[in-house]
Design a protein that fits this description.
The protein is mostly beta strands. It is about 0% helix and about 50% strand.
Length: about 120
């Protein structure tokens, strides 16, 4: 089983940057594909980005491609989401996940972008 804890959320002005972190428990972190989803008020949870176990392959939602970068440090059991040029529509609760045989979710971290 994997436990995930997100951090790094907060309030940022439009055009600014923020880096989210997600720390995972367990000794097999590198065997999981990991990534981020987000959920804005009144909307369904949507995919943001994912990275494979080795970190060699990434995929982004069109709405964040070119602005957000996902990365991972398997030695630290941590996945990151670097958010640049943020927009008010990026405001949401951001959840990290780890996908192996099962899917595990963190508790979420709030990101608020002011205009």
């Amino acid at each position: 089983q994997v436990q995930l804890v997100e951090s790094g959320g907060g309030l940022v002005q439009a055009g600014g940057s923020l880096r989210l972190s997600c720390a995972a428990s367990g000794r097999t972190f590198s065997s999981y594909d990991v990534g981020w989803y987000r959920q804005a008020p009144g909307k369904e949870r949507e995919f943001v980005a994912t990275i494979n176990g080795s970190g060699g392959s990434t995929y982004y939602a069109g709405s964040v491609k070119g602005r957000f970068t996902i990365s991972r440090d398997n030695a630290k059991n941590t996945v990151y989401l670097q958010m640049n040029s943020v927009k008010p529509e990026d405001t949401a609760i951001y959840y990290c996940y780890a996908r192996g045989r099962d899917v595990y979710w963190g508790q979420g971290t709030q990101v608020t972008v002011s205009s």
